[in-house]
Amino acid sequence: MLSIIIADDNKLVCESIKESVLYFFSDALIFFAFDGTDVLKIINEKSVSVIIMDIDMPLMNGLEAANEIKRLKKNCKIICTSSYKTPQELINLTSYGVKGFIQKGCKQAIYKIAIETVLEDELYFEKPILELIIENGLHRPTNESINAQKSITLTEAENKVLNYLKSGLANNLIAKELNIEISTVEKHLTNIYRKFNVKNREELKKK
Predict the structure, then answer these.
(1) Which mean pLDDT values do the consecutive 10-residue runs of the chain (207 residues) have?
(2) Pairing mode, if any, of strands 77-82 and 3-7?
(3) What kind of fold does domain 3-125 have according to CATH?
(4) Per CATH, which fold does 143-206 belong to?
(5) Which pTM value belongs to this model?
């Protein structure tokens, strides 16, 4: 069963997010937390799939809680929320083990897409944030990988897909960001896998 912690110091916000989540995942088990310490208490007592957590909370904020969850190696996917953060302020979220970010007040469907994406162990970020994450090197290549890639020639379109792929973005979101069909993304991925002599994303990441 899908189990989700909704963490925000505003109870009305918690109820609103719960309504959005249950609209798409009607059988999900929902827990409320009102600061980071509540989150840690719940994950130590319950099996949790996803945490939707406000960054700014009292006692222990969302990033402090995320960092502790990462240290404890708890197997739950973290999506942070906020109303006021700029993309520049959010580029380091992945270093805390955060898999996604949602702006408060977003459309209900965003919660569905974000939850499904992080459950696939991929990242969900809005385009401006994602571009900064890529620009600042979420996965910085080693000298070995750079040398190996010098002999591989990719088209401009394949390079664009590869950049989003390295950030962990799902195929449907790559298609959305590049304004192309999913089938086109899959075609580019097939060519990329062939050129790198790999079978899937995981093998490509190791390359």
Answers:
(1) 95 95 96 96 95 92 92 92 80 87 89 93 81 62 45 77 81 88 90 85 75
(2) unpaired
(3) Rossmann fold (3.40.50)
(4) Arc Repressor Mutant, subunit A (1.10.10)
(5) 0.65
